[in-house]
Amino acid sequence: MAKVFAYNLPQATKSQKKVVNTSTKTITTTTIKEEPVSLMARLNFAEESLPLGDKRVERKMKKVLAAHNFSHLQTTHLQQLAAEWFPIIEPILAAYGIPDDFKYVPLVESGIQGGMSPKGANGFWQFMPGTARTYGLRVNSEIDERKNLRKSTIAACKYIKELYGVFDSWTLVAAAYNVGDNHMKKQIHRQSEDNYFKMKLNRETGGYVYKLISMKETIKDPKRLVDPSPKRVLAMDTNRE
What we know:
Layout: H1 2-23, H2 39-42, E1 44-45, E2 48-49, H3 55-68, H4 72-95, H5 105-111, H6 129-134, H7 149-167, H8 170-179, H9 181-191, H10 203-206, H11 208-220
Antiparallel strand pairs: 1-2
C-alpha cells in the first residue's frame, strides 16, 4: 500500500496544480471601434449608390442637399405633405413592385411649387395630358384625374414599370421620367454610357436624381444631412454643377 500511495501522490499533486493554474487564467477581449460612415457612402436612390470617390458627384450632391435644407419652414411643409400623401402612395408602389423611393417623386414634382407647369404638366406626378391618357387617366374640360392622388399614382406606376423594362436601372428610370424615354435612349447611345451619375445631361435632368435623394434625406431626418467627417461650411454655387 505504501508503494501505491507513494506512486500516486505526485500525480495527484500535479493534477491539483493543473486545476489551480486553469482557474487563474483570464480571458481578454478586444473591442473594435467602427469608423463612422461618410455621408456619400450612405446616400442612394432605390438601392443604387452614388459612385464613391467622384469629387464632381460629391460636390453636386452636397450642393443639392444644402439647397433643399435651407429653410425649416419648407422642410416642415414637405413633411406635412409626406404624412398626407405617403399612406396612399406607398401601398400602390409596393403592389406594382416599384421601389419605395419613388414616393419622393411627387414631392419633387409638385410638392414645392405645385400647379401646372409652363409646358402643361399637372397633378401630383406632373403628367402631360397625352401621357396621362395613355396610362388610363381622364383629362378633359370637365375632369382632370392627374389631380387624383390614388389614380395618378397607379398611372405613374404603370409608366415607371414600363420604363424599367427599357432601362433596367432605377436611376435611369427616374431621369427618363423627367426628360422622356426617347431622349434618355438617345443620350445613352450617344455617350455610350448607362450610369446616370456619369452621364452629361441637361441641367434639370442631370440634377433630378440628386433632388430625389435630397428630398428623401430631408423627409427622413434633416439632421442626417450634416456630414460628420469634415467640419466645413457648404458654399452655395449656383453657377457650377
